[in-house]
Design brief:
With about 300 residues, the protein is mostly helical. About 75% of the residues lie in helices and about 0% in strands. It is built from twelve helices and no strands. Helix 1 runs antiparallel to helix 9 and helix 3 packs antiparallel against helix 8. The longest helix is centred in the middle third of the chain and has 30 residues, at about 170-195. The chain is globular. About 40% of the residues are buried.
């Protein structure tokens, strides 16, 4: 029988897990607000890439589907338990699903801001255009095809009653890994755009600070949660959550370095954005000169 000190220690860790879980969800949820608010304040989406936003919608859709299946489907949970007999309880919690659904809504709202007619925002340069890059489009198509292939395999194995074949838990894992791939890819266009412009103007650093806070708390919660179960299969059984936290933290650190060190004090970006601005200025000057010349006559 465990001692009273051990019982108190476990209870304290349980409360700490709950605190970390709620705080990480809160930080991540709040991270979706600074960018659209910044867009509205500036009256422009220039400085943020549409690739990041539109891929985010797909990413959190598959993330929410994966977590919902692990949390609410008794069939999937039974298959998870069979794969992880030592730690049969998934580490997914209700707040993970709520966070995912909230992220989808805010990502769609931010995406809609690239449609200038709807919000009346300036789409100043190429970074603000409603156009997905070929790379991002290819990743999205690959995710849909990959998950669809997993579903087909499960249906085929069920029809043939194959033992040891594909199960719905494999589709859940496919959704999770798809989210991991999207998370790795979605930050690259924005980091590259910041590098080309030599500026983070138009890209909210507050969302990054909130995101890295949520990532650190989430990983801590996952590690403590798994250790209390007495087996680290809680981590290996949910590698996506661990991977997402690590990848996000790495890119967050890169964005922080770009904002506070590499491009500190850059009020205007270089490259494409300035090029578009110069074209508009030249056109405005030409019209002004023409009007002055006409008036002079």
């Amino acid at each position: 029988m465990p001692s009273q000190d051990t019982i108190h220690f476990v209870r304290a860790l349980s409360r700490l897990i709950e605190l970390f879980s709620h705080n990480s969800t809160l930080a991540w949820s709040l991270s979706f607000y600074p960018q659209p608010l910044l867009n509205l304040r500036r009256g422009s989406t220039t400085g943020s890439t549409i690739d990041y936003v539109i891929v985010n919608v797909l990413g959190f859709t598959v993330y929410t589907l994966s977590n919902s299946a692990l949390l609410f489907s008794s069939h999937v949970r039974a298959q998870y338990a069979a794969r992880n007999p030592v730690s049969p309880e998934p580490t997914v919690r209700v707040n993970d699903v709520v966070f995912g659904a909230h992220a989808i809504v805010l990502s769609v709202v931010t995406l809609s801001m690239f449609w200038g007619r709807l919000w009346g925002l300036e789409q100043g340069g190429r970074l603000g255009r409603w156009r997905l890059s070929k790379g991002a489009a290819g990743i999205m198509i690959g995710v849909v095809v990959g998950v669809g292939w997993a579903v087909v395999r499960v249906l085929a194995d069920e029809d043939g009653a194959r033992k040891g074949g594909w199960e719905w838990i494999d589709v859940v894992y496919a959704l999770g890994y798809a989210k991991l791939v999207i998370t790795v890819v979605k930050y690259v266009p924005q980091a590259w755009a910041n590098y080309k412009r030599k500026s983070t103007e138009g890209w909210s650093i507050l969302q990054i600070l909130l995101d890295i806070t949520g990532g650190v708390l989430s990983i801590t919660q996952l590690l403590i949660d798994s250790s209390l179960q007495g087996d680290w299969s809680g981590v290996t059984g949910n590698p996506v959550k661990l991977g997402l936290g690590n990848v996000s933290i790495c890119f967050d650190i890169l964005f922080i370095i770009q904002h506070y060190w590499l491009y500190k004090g850059s009020r205007k970006g270089k490259g494409e954005e300035d090029g578009w601005a110069r074209e508009e200025d030249d056109e405005s000057r030409s019209l002004l000169d023409e009007r002055i010349h006409t008036d002079g006559r």
